[in-house]
Structure formats: C-alpha cells, structure tokens
Amino acid sequence: MSGSEAAAGTPPASLPGLEDIRAAARRLEPLAVRTPLLDVPGASARLGLRLLIKAEVLQRTGTFKFRGAYNRIAALSPEARKGGVVAFSSGNHAQGVAAAAALLGVPATIVMPADAPAIKLANTRNYGAEVVLYDRERDDREAIGRAIAGERGATLVPPFDDPWIIAGQGTVGLEIAEQCAELGLVPDAVLAPASGGGLIAGMAIALADACPTARLIACEPAGFDDIGRSLQAGKRESNAPGGRSICDALMAATPGLLPFALLTKLKAAAIAVTEAEVEQAMVMAFLELKLVVEPGGAAALAAVLAGKAGAGLGAGSGASPDGRPRVVVAVASGGNVDPALFALVLSRSAMK
Amino acid sequence: MSGSEAAAGTPPASLPGLEDIRAAARRLEPLAVRTPLLDVPGASARLGLRLLIKAEVLQRTGTFKFRGAYNRIAALSPEARKGGVVAFSSGNHAQGVAAAAALLGVPATIVMPADAPAIKLANTRNYGAEVVLYDRERDDREAIGRAIAGERGATLVPPFDDPWIIAGQGTVGLEIAEQCAELGLVPDAVLAPASGGGLIAGMAIALADACPTARLIACEPAGFDDIGRSLQAGKRESNAPGGRSICDALMAATPGLLPFALLTKLKAAAIAVTEAEVEQAMVMAFLELKLVVEPGGAAALAAVLAGKAGAGLGAGSGASPDGRPRVVVAVASGGNVDPALFALVLSRSAMK
Question: Do A250 and A332 share a domain, yes or no?
C-alpha cells in the first residue's frame, strides 16, 4: 500500500491483482464472448486518431457485467451456491447475475429500481431470477439486498466493490491488450464508462501490466462525476442525491472502495460527458458501427467524439509526440436500451 | 456442365470456383473485417435450434458488398484502374464500390436510384464517389451505367453478375465454414438475404466444399421472390415491375445469370418472408443481438424466426434426425438503414 492509498480512506481488505484477472479469464473462457475490437475508419479519419471500439454490447446479456458476475458466483463453495445469490442493481448487473446464476444452477434474487428500463427488468426475469422492486429515491437498495440475503442464507453479489467482480470485469482489459497486440498497436488511451468503477479499475490492473503507457480514463455523466471529483480530492466524494441522468447504468452515488483505491494507485483519469454528447455517440454508433449502445454504454465513445479524450492524454491533441495518430480504445459497455428511448434519440438526431 | 444447368439457360462464360474464393480471401485479408459469428442463446432456446448470426453489418461500409467490390477492382489492370469504375446500385453495392475504389485510388461513379435511403446516398458520397441519380420506375440503370462507362473509358462493376464479385462475396461462406469448425459445429442450414443472388451463390461454392451437408437458402421479400420461382421453374423468372418493398436492398428484377447457374447446380433452396417478419427480425436483432440490421439485411433472420427455415431442411422441424438441435447460420448482411425508418420500426413494435 502506498501513502496516497492510505490517505484515500480505509485500506481495503483485498485488492485484486493481475493473477486474479488471469484466473477470471480462464473461468470465463468457455462462456463469455471474446468481443471484437472494431475499427472505425470514418470517425478515425475525422478525429485524426486511430479509434477502436471494444464492443461489449455483443457480450452475453448485452453488457460486460456478465464477466464479473460469473466470476463471483463460480468462486462460491457448493454449499454457498445452494443458498442462492442476491444482487441489487439498476439493471445490467442484474442481468449479469441472473444469467450467470442460471448457467451455474444457482437461485438468484435481484433487487432492482422500479423505474429501471423495461428491457432490463424483462431480461432479468427471463433469465429465471426473482425480481424485487425498490424506490430509487426512498429506499436503501443495499439494506434491502442484505435483509433478503440474511433471511434466505444467500450470498450478496455486489455490483463493483468485490475483488472477484473487479477481476472478472478486468478481463475486458486483458482482451484489449491482446487484441491491440494482434493489430500491432499500442494504445495511448483506453476509456470506459464508469459508475462504481469496477470495470475501469479491473481494466487498469490488466493494462498496467500489458500496456503500461496507456492512460486509463473513467467516463461519467455530468452530475454523476464522483470518480473524477474523488480522484482530484484524494478521497471518495458522493454525488448530490436525487439527480437524474439518461445514463441509467451510471448512477452510483460514490466510487467503490476497492475501485477507488485501484484507480488512485494506477493513476487513472476521469472525464464527464453531457447528455447531448451521449446521444450523439449513440447515433454515431448506430450509423457507423451498426451497434446498439445504451446511454451509459456510450459515455466513453461520447468523450472521444466530443474531443475530450485528449485532455486525459496530457498533450491535449490527437497526435502523439512522434507524429503518428494516437491509438484510442473506447469500451461500448452495454446495449440494453428500451426501443422507445432509442427511437426517441434517433428521431431527435434526425430533426437536427 | 450438367444437364440441369444447360436446361437452366445460356451457359455462362465463366463460373467462379473455390480457388477464386480462396484468392479473394487472400486479397481481402488485410482490409475486410473477419466478421464475428455470434451465438444467440435466447433465440436458440426459444426455437430449439443452435442459431448463429454472421454479423456482416460489422463489415467495412456496413455490408458484405465491400468484399465483392474490392475483389473486382483489385483485379483490374493498372491501365483499367486509371479509367475509373462505374456501378449501378440501390445503395449497398454503391458504398462497397466507392469505399473499395477509394482504398485503391480508383475514381468511381455510382448510378443510384433517387429514392435510395439518404444514409446510403450520403455514405457513397462520403467515400469520395460521384453519384448520378436515376428514377427507379422510369430509367434503365444498366443503360445509364453503360453509357457513362463508354464515355469515360471506365470499367463497369456489376452488382452480382460477375465472377470476381461472386468470389468476393463467397468469402462470407469460407469464414462461416472456418468459424463453425472452430466451434466444433457442422451447419445444417445456412441462410442469406438474396437479391441478384451473388452472395448466396458465392457462399454456396465455399460451403459445398467445406460443409457439403449444409443446405443453402436464399431469403427474399414476398413480391421479390424471383430466385425461388426461378429455381422451381428451372429458368430465370422476373418480378412484376413497379413493386415496392421495405427491403430496398433486395429489389433486383431477376436473378443474375451466373448466380442462377450456381444456385441451380448447387441445389440451393429459397424462402420468401413478409414485411412484418422482416420488421420482427430487425427488432429481435436490436433487443438480443445489439446489432443494427437494415430491412433487406434481416431477411434471413426473419425466415429463421418465422419458423420457415425448417422447410428448406426437408424434415420440417427444428431437430435433426439424431436428436441434437439443428445448427442454423443466418447472415445479417447489411445495416445501412435511415434513423427515421429504424425509429419507426422500433416504435411500431413497442405499440404491439
């Protein structure tokens, strides 16, 4: 533990490391999709970058969340599995836990906000999980989850503050490193949407080893920029309660304890994006990538398209010091968006 | 030439073979995307099949058409390249030719219907091609294309009736065979959207070699089922003029001469799908695959979801004689759909 970590808050019990991510990759190998790293010739030319998209929308359940959830549940003892699992989630972690539990034959109960996108509620139920609804503004979802876990003898699968979850999400970073190497590229910056910070923290561990010169950047919605403010303050900051965002997947109140410790230690940066920038990224993904990306899943792409990725690179421009275009990887982390909202975003853009 | 081919019409000058497809694959290797073959656990379970989607919407230009166009233009002599290329197309071939010509430094002129989707017109111009518009009901696009080619000394790049084009599209079949082998699967049926028949004919050549037991099925919109009627009649039939379809990419009047000869020789089947089935497939691709698929690109998926693929398999049911689920591959061949139409399709489905 370094001095800056100790200053950041209570030292976490157990930070995951590279070996945990490699173990997760082996566990996930037969079941998780090795999602493609897609080239984007048009946008790359316009931006003066080599932009690559890690298409986690093509992951099982339409989001990276399956990776962490499966890694966590697969690590449970046979006895713990019998008791089942409980999770609280705005939707994508819910689907990941429900799908992973179903594959492993473990009963799952998911505590979800009543205003979660209909597609996420329906998918979670379709994977066979029991869904318990709560009021996002009135109820404490963690307390509800813990109460159910206590009653049923079930294991709580938290969305990000867990070494197994972080290690599972980190396999995204492992794959990015491998896929860049296959293309003969070294990434200058790797951006991912961030809520509690589990994905970007896991990726940071993997990439610190394989691509130590790559800058890791957490992308958050404006108004939910707790990771950025926390990294600046050197301690965990919270978002003002009661805020709303089109990015339903990125509304955690504060960074996770373990993710924050890792992001501090590994010197990650953060960028906030507006709703207009997020919608623009969703439309660009529709037009140029042919991918369905949900609002929260588009935050990293939004940061790149808005020209904000340069800030995290220090130099503030697209070209690297040696003149070659910078290699920028953005994770499109989820695609679970209601048809009506997606249609609205497309219609709004067509009217411009 | 077998007897059935001779009966099918004038013997074509030069049918492409497996070696032509392998040569095309080598030519395309550095530039074309090896598009993923995606598993669809939910739909597979519902249908009692192992359904796999070949995601050609992730191909350069958002459609498989880049493969054939690049293979054709790359085969031109340096002198012919200087004269440029001309193509007539409803949109996807236009984009393929424009993008391939730009990569090879060849000037391109594209003759497009004035009512082509705005996204296809804009993309074709963005790749640097000159676009000449024609009236779909009044003008003869082939005559316009030939006149321009004559005036400028340019080479005509036809959309499907050309051995190089068919060989390029056939690389989709080569990849499907390789990707199925990597998964330890043998496909029972392989379906692709069909208009002039270049894609399915090229795929049939590749798969006749690698997966000789797989049934190749051309999927057409109702009202544009010329391939199905032609295969039944044993001679090339035409669609009634003036018909309309949501599948703007699948409105060729009659099968190509070379594709028809190949489909006859290789005993391909055909299925027609309704517009409602196509829209349903677009929505399913949005919800479960997170892929943007245009109407014409969704015809094969529509046939599978509507339970029509069994007909082409003979047995009429999902299970193969030995009881394992049938392995069915559907090509999602293009994703170039206007945002307004996509929004309309999503909205219509949300109201059901």
Answer: yes
Contact across the interface for A290 and B292, Cβ inside 8 Å: yes
Residues B218 and B312 in one domain: yes
Domain count, chain B: 2
Report the C-alpha gap between B66 and B59 in whole angstroms: 8
Q: Based on the domain organization, do B213 and B342 belong to the same domain?
A: yes
Residue B165 CA to residue B54 CA, distance in Å, equals 19
- Check whether B206 has a pLDDT greater than 60: yes
Strand order in the sheet with B215-221: B37-39, B49-55, B326-332, B189-193, B215-221, B269-273
| B97 and B237 fall within a common domain | no
- Which pLDDT tens digit goes with each residue over B29-44? 989 999 999 999 889 9
Is residue B147 located within the same domain as residue B78? yes
Mean pLDDT of A68-94: 93
Which among A286, A339, A349 has CB closest to B349? A339
* Minimum CA–CA partner of A56 in chain B: B290
pLDDT in tens, A272-282: 999 999 999 99
In the block, residue with structure tokens 């001095």: A3
* ipTM of model: 0.92
Q: Give the domain range for residue B17.
A: 3-64+162-350
Q: Chain A residues with CB inside 8 Å of B291's CB?
A: 290-292
Closest partner residue to A58 (CB to CB) among B38, B62, B344 is B38
Domain final residue, candidates A95, A126, A156: A156
B39 near A CB under 8 A: yes
Between CA A28 and CA B205 the distance in angstroms is 36
For residue B339, the chain A residues in CB contact (below 8 A) are: 283, 286-287, 346-347, 349-350
Question: Whole-model pTM above 0.90?
Answer: yes
Closest CB to A290: pick one of B41, B57, B349: B57
